[in-house]
Structures are given as C-alpha cells and as structure tokens.
Specification:
By secondary structure, the chain is an alpha/beta fold. It has 14 helices and 11 strands.
C-alpha cells in the first residue's frame, strides 16, 4: 500500500493539471475564435457599406443577414473543434506509429496502411457534404430574403389578397430547407460510419498480428526478436489511441463542411464591388463640379449608359436634366453622388462626400421615429434642427410626421409625397450640404403634391446648387437651366459625343 498511494496521488495530480491546462487552452481558443469571427464580420460590413447600393453584384439584405448572423456562427465549431482535431491528426498518429515501430515495424506498417484509407474515404464523403452544406445555406439565405421582402410588402399582399399563396410558397421553401438539412446530416452520419469501420479494421489487424506473433505463427516484424507479452499488450493499447484523433475527426467532420461553406460565404461578402469613384479636388475655373468625357457603364451591360459627357456646373446653379426614360439621367446623378463607378473620363469637384445630398425616387424610411429618420445618426443634427427641417419640408402640419411619431419599415404611416418631404427634411437639417441631387422628385405624384414638393425643393435650394433629373416640365421650368440628354441614348453601339457646357 505504501507503494500504491504515491503512484495514485501522482496520477491524480497529473489528471488535475491536465484538466486545468485543457480548460485554460480552451478558454484562449474560444476568445481567439470569437475575435476572428468578429474581424470577419467587421470586414464584411465594411465591404457592404462601401459598395454602391446600385451594385447589381451586391448581396441582398436577406442573404447578407443570413451569412453574418447564421453562417458566421458556423465558424465557431469549425475553429474550436475541427482545427484542433486536425492538428492532432497531423501529429499524434505519426508519434504513436514511431513508438510502435520501436517494438514492431510490422505493427507500425499496419497502422500506417490503415490510416490513409480513412481520410481518403472521408474526403470523398466530405466533398458531397460540402456541396450539400452550401446548397443548404443558399436555400436558407433565399428563404430569409423572400421572407424579408414579403414582410416589407405585407400591406400590398393583403390588398391583393395574396397572403395565402405567399404563405404556401414560404412553407414550400421551409420544407425544401428541411430536406436539405436532413441530407447534410445523412452525409455526416455516413462519414462517421466509414471512419468507425476502418478504425475497427485497423485495430483488428494489429490484434491479429500481435496474437499470431505471440503464438509463434508469425516470427517476423520485431527487429529479429520475439515480442514479449508486455510489449504486445502495449502495442494493442496504442492501436486504439492511434485511431482516436481520426475518430474525433469524424465527429467534427460536419463542422468542417459547414465551416468551409461559411468561410466562402464570408469571403464573397468581403469582395469589393462598385464603390465610391476617385475624384480630384480642383475643378477648372473655380466651378463646383466638372465632368470631362465621362462614361458610366453598369455591370453586365455591353454598352455604357452615356459616354464622353462633359459638364461644368457652377456654385449656386439650378440645373434640370431632362430626356426620355433610359437615357442616363438617374445614372448621371448616381455617378456624381458616388453610387456608381466611372468607366472613363474624369469627375472633379471641390465637394466632400458629406456635402452632397441625395433624394431618390423612392426614399427609404427606416423603422423608427421621425426624428431618427431625419437625423440619420448625424451628431450635428439636434432636436431644433429636426424641427426646423420639418417646417422647411412643410411637414409641420402632418400628424404622422411629428418628431416622436414612430414609422414602420419602408415608410408605413406616410404617403408617397410625405416620404419625399421627409427626404427633403433630411437635407434641410444639415446646413453643410452644398449640392442637392434629386432624381424624379415629383414623379407619381398628383399636381398639388408635386407643386408643394417643387416649392419646398426651391426653398431648400436657396444658396445651394441643385441638379435635378425630371420629366416634370413645371419643375424644369422653375430651375435656371435645362439640358436634354436624349441624344446620348443611341440604338446602336456607337454613342456620339455630346458637350454640355454650362456657363455661369
């Protein structure tokens, strides 16, 4: 007993120390994995924020939310479980094989012969698992995007009595996602079965060799000497340990498939697309904006929207860009605002990005208060500025436009004209804006509302520069200059050069 107790205490102490080291290492690994995932999310968000909203290659909001919220979390088990097991698989079996070879080279060869079969068949299964996981995440992203889009248009669906067909389609998408998830799980279980089979065969082959060697039927493989009973038992005890990392690899193989798909999805979000074009800051002649032989081509289009466009805009001018639909008016404003990249030519302006105000055809209203929708998180826009901006936009008498009034996503609670006035209020609240770009601000409005929007826009443009794309002759006539862009829209590939030079 005096000999057993010290050995038992030493084993207990070694076990406690090992547990503490494992806990400490696991904590460090968890913190490192969380920091890595946060970094990937940060890079993806920066990439999405820097890409143009008009970039056709940009991920939809539903897909981006699915990747950032769900698929990014799939990286956690990949980093915490799969990668450590992968490191053990690359080192521990080789170490055990070397120790086994010290006693019996035949037993070591049996282990080394059985070991590659496991990764080979698991790789074959893994390719199918990865493809199934990718399809599963694509299905989930598509369903999220579909659900988000239908929630935004729920009022329209109710008006058209299309709620039931939409619910049936959503149920079909959910059923398809369930089937793809079960397919991924079936492949994961198959990989576990393959590994268990080859692990059992490997251990059985070692046991058969050791048994027949000890019985005297196999007299080779022990460096010229017969293995003792203790050496044979030691090799048999090492054989399951040799396959233990590979068994652990089977348990986390599904994490590898999900993690690899998540890494690729995050990499796609981080890709750079259409972003803010580079600009010089010295327009010739002291102009506010100068375009020289400018060309803008949308992604996937064979011809540019316009080409070799030259335009000079002086400070304080009010310019109307007119022309038929599709001739490039909205594209021109988007390029000036920095929402589209420039294909050729140059764009020079003394304006900073924060000094350009944009009013789109359908201003987006966020879910929140009117004050939050006008301030847009700008620290210089306080309550007084918001109140004065609502007066300038002629919204002070609208009950739904009270600063504390809560609006729904997409402007639920406001009419189309009131939403446009709210967009005007966003610009009116920031006196640093020097150039206002308005894209069809009076489109789809009745005459009275269009007249009120025109008056509010002209009042807002006092002392500022206005560049308006419009089909409204009344709005165009109220501005200083008018320019037609019809000649830029050619039915063939030859786009003629047009000079649009505005003098002060």
């Amino acid at each position: 007993m005096s000999v057993v107790w010290p050995a038992a205490l030493i084993m207990l102490l070694v076990g406690v120390i090992r547990s503490l080291i494992d806990a400490w290492g696991g904590r460090i690994l968890y913190c490192s994995a969380r920091a890595h995932i946060s970094g990937l999310r940060h890079d993806a968000l920066i990439s999405l924020a820097s890409r143009s909203p008009q970039d056709t290659q940009r991920a939809s909001s539903g897909e981006a939310a699915s990747v950032l919220a769900e698929q990014a979390e799939a990286l956690l088990p990949y980093l915490l479980r799969y990668l450590p097991v992968q490191q053990r698989v690359m080192t521990l079996p080789l170490l055990i094989a070397a120790v086994t070879a010290w006693f019996s080279w035949t037993a070591a060869l049996v282990l080394l012969f059985a070991a590659p079969l496991i990764p080979m068949f698991m790789a074959l299964v893994g390719w199918q698992a990865k493809a199934a996981a990718e399809k599963q995440w694509v299905e989930a992203g598509a369903m999220n995007g579909f659900l988000l889009d239908r929630l935004r248009g729920l009022t329209t669906l109710r008006a058209l009595d299309a709620v039931e067909p939409t619910a049936e389609r959503l149920q079909y998408s959910a059923q398809s996602l369930r089937q793809r998830t079960m397919r991924v799980l079936r492949i994961a279980f198959l990989s576990s079965a393959v590994l268990e089979l080859f692990s059992a065969l490997g251990v059985a082959l070692v046991a058969v060799y050791v048994g027949f060697h000890l019985l005297g039927y196999l007299n080779f493989g022990a460096w010229g000497e017969r293995l003792s009973l203790g050496e044979g038992l030691f090799i048999l005890l090492l054989a399951p340990t040799f396959f233990e990392p590979l068994r652990d690899l089977s348990a986390v193989w599904h994490d590898r498939a999900s993690g690899a798909s998540a890494i690729e999805a995050m990499a796609r979000l981080t890709e750079r697309g259409a972003s803010l074009p580079e600009r010089s800051t010295a327009p010739p002649g002291g102009a506010l904006l100068n375009l020289y032989e400018l060309a803008v081509q949308h992604a996937g289009k064979q011809r540019p929207a316009f080409s070799e466009l030259s335009l000079t805009l002086q400070s304080g001018e009010h310019l109307a860009i007119t022309g038929t639909s599709g001739c490039g008016k909205s594209t021109l404003l988007a390029a000036i605002a920095g929402l589209l990249p420039i294909s050729a030519g140059s764009l020079s302006t003394s304006l900073k990005p924060g000094e350009i105000g944009w009013i789109g055809q359908r201003p987006h209203i966020f879910a929140g208060t009117v004050h939050a929708n006008v301030a847009l998180g700008r620290p210089q826009v306080d309550k007084a500025a918001v109140q004065q901006a609502l007066v300038t936009a002629r919204l002070q008498a609208v009950d739904q436009a009270h600063p504390r009034q809560v609006l729904g996503e997409g402007g639920i609670g406001l009419s189309g004209g009131e939403a446009l006035r709210l967009a005007l209020a966003r610009i009116a609240a920031d006196p640093s804006i020097r150039l206002i770009l308005a894209d069809e601000p009076t489109a789809h409005l009745d005459r009275q509302t269009a007249r009120e929007i025109t008056q509010a826009l002209l009042e807002l443009g006092r002392g500022r520069t206005l560049l308006v794309a419009t089909h409204d002759p009344a709005l165009a006539a109220a501005l200083h200059r008018q320019v037609r862009l019809d000649e830029l829209c050619q039915p063939n590939e030859n786009v003629q050069r047009t000079e649009l030079e505005l003098q002060p």
